[in-house]
Every structure is written in structure tokens, then in C-alpha cells.
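Course assignment 3, question 2. Fill in each field.
Student: A.L.
Task: Predict the tertiary structure for the chain below.
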Amino acid sequence: MEKIILGVDPGTRVMGYGLISTKGNSASLILMDVLDMRKIDSYELRIKYIFDSMIRLIDGYHPDYLAIEAPFYGKNVQSMLKLGRAQGVAIAAALSRQIPFCEYEPRRIKQSITGNGSSSKEQVAAMLGRLLNFSDMPNYLDATDALAVAYCHFLQKDIPEVVEVGKPRKSKGKSWQAFLSENPDRVK
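Answer field:
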């Protein structure tokens, strides 16, 4: 059964997105590009642009999942907060269309694609070119970063349980009593 994964590399100046189609053990590139917001002066208008653009992508391609890169702590706390807002707006757009999402740490994404969590953007892009059979690299590596998030999601065998919007999360854990009975030597 074909599934479409929308990957997003959040940003408030340049935001990458990539779409892949998956069927069984194979994946193919649908599209990758960026939202270029460098000419939009107002931060509020950039956030609105992200939301509107995500809705257009979702309505146009009908992805089954959103895979998004988690913001990471850098040197500038304000930049991280802005990235978190961009990520939140993208997630909100997906949830407004009943699309589940998964978040991935940058190191996990790189590890999934290249086998090395410290790979450069260029190394990730080159490996994706081989995996998804494309040679024309985009002007912004944010597009291949987003594609990497989508491909990382495709590779996961332990995809977290998807929570449907409006339904409570089911507990995956066992009860405390079950733990105690299965581990009597750990209880004193």
C-alpha cells in the first residue's frame, strides 16, 4: 500500500520540505523544495506563510505522515524559540488535516541516512541522491534536509504509536503491578 511522507526542516527564513512515496521496502522522490521567506520582513507574516504553505502542500499531495526535525539547542536561545514556533505551526497545519506527525533529532536523521550522526549536510544530500536516484541538487540544502527527515521516517521499524487527533493516547506500558511480578529481584 502506497504511503506518502512529508518531511520538514523547520525555519523562519528558509524552510525545507520534501515528499516521498513509499511502497513496501522502496521509496521514491515526489518533490523537494524550500519556502523562502527572506523577503518577508514581519515575523508574524512568515509564520502565517508557513501555515498557509503547509496547508497547500497537504491539500495538494495528501501525505499520510508528517516527519519533522526537532529543534536543537544552539548558541542563540532566540533562534531556537523561533525554530520551535515554525515547527509548531507546521505541526498544527498537519493536525488540522488529521495527519499524524513524528519528530526526529538531527543526529538520528543523519545516522539513518549516512550511518554517521555527525555527517555534513552535503554528505546527507549526496547519499539521498543515490538512495532516491536524483543528481540535481537544490540551491538550498534545507530541501534535502527535509527529504532526509521523510526518508528517516520511512526507514524506522519502530515508528512511535500514532495518536489520532481527538482520541486519547493508549498506554503502551504495563502496570506497576505487572512490573513487580515480572521483576521480583529488583524490588526490596
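Instructor remarks: The radius of gyration is 18 Å. The first strand starts at residue 3 and ends at 9.
Grade: pending
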